[in-house]
Write a structure and sequence with these properties.
12-stranded mixed β-sheet, 5-stranded mixed β-sheet, globular, Fumarylacetoacetate hydrolase, domain 2, binds magnesium ion, mainly beta, SH3 type barrels
């Protein structure tokens, strides 16, 4: 099931996305919240009549670095022996169609297409065999990075945590085998990144075991699983799109921060 979060007439709701053709998609509005038991209301509204929002509002976004060998290599980095994580704050999250605001303190903002895992239940110290039970579903993410700032500053809080640096969406797919999906990114229609989730160095199971060893994960928390090779600069006016097989396409436009 594809679950979207949206606003209509000033109200925010979740809905199950029905249909295949982009211009014919319909939302069946969900009664309750999708992390607990919920029912479909049967009240339907066309996707074209609503504003899609970030599919979840995470308490935290935990992002893993250098998890595809080709990307580590293009950055001149060694592949890490163990997963390593950093945070993107809740205030970095924006939704499908939202603007990415180019920050004033960077001259080299990059795109990074990533598979995002959405956590479905409160959990800690998750054993490998239980990882599937704590996952709600999957969505597309763009780990927008001020590359010059990342190189200059030891901690990545500013480089990877600025406002609008974490587009998520367009919805959460709850029934998906995430282990071998095509992940691609285009800028103004031209392909920049192409990889498969099977190329991850540390698996989704590894990543969730690793982070949940340290901290409690909450429903709606998001885990970014790393980016394949092909990262590169974005410029004001660009339209950047992340497409993951079986999920959909997350599109955002880059604007100057006003
Ligand atoms: Mg990344």
């Amino acid at each position: 099931m594809r679950i979207a979060r949206f606003s209509i007439d000033g109200n925010v709701a979740f809905g199950a996305v029905e249909g295949e053709k982009q211009d014919e998609l319909v939302l069946d509005i969900i009664k309750g919240i999708p992390f607990a038991d919920f029912e479909l209301s049967g009240t339907k509204v066309p996707v074209s009549k609503v504003r899609l929002l970030p599919p979840v509002l995470p308490n935290k976004v935990v992002a893993f670095g250098r998890n595809y060998a080709d990307h580590a290599k293009e950055m001149g980095n060694e592949v890490p022996d163990a997963p390593f994580a950093f945070f993107k704050p809740a205030t970095s999250v924006v939704g499908p169609g939202d603007e990415i605001q180019y920050p004033s303190f960077s001259q080299d903002v990059h795109h990074e297409a990533e598979l995002a895992v959405v956590i479905g239940r409160l959990c800690r110290e998750v054993p490998r065999e239980r990882v599937k039970d704590v996952i709600f579903g999957y969505t597309c993410a763009n780990d927008i990075t001020a590359r010059d700032v990342q190189k200059r500053e030891k901690q990545w809080a500013r480089a990877k945590g600025f406002d609008t640096s974490c587009p998520l969406g367009p919805w959460v797919e709850t029934e998906l085998d995430p282990h071998d999906l095509t992940i691609q990114l285009t800028v103004n229609g031209g392909q920049r990144q192409l990889g498969r989730t099977s190329e991850m160095i540390h698996s989704i199971e590894d990543l969730i075991v690793n982070i949940s060893e340290a901290m409690t994960l909450l429903p709606g928390d998001v885990i970014l699983t790393g980016t394949p090779a092909g990262v590169g600069p974005l410029h004001v006016g660009d339209e950047v799109a992340v497409t993951i097989e079986g999920i959909g396409t997350l599109t955002n436009k880059v604007v100057k921060r006003g």
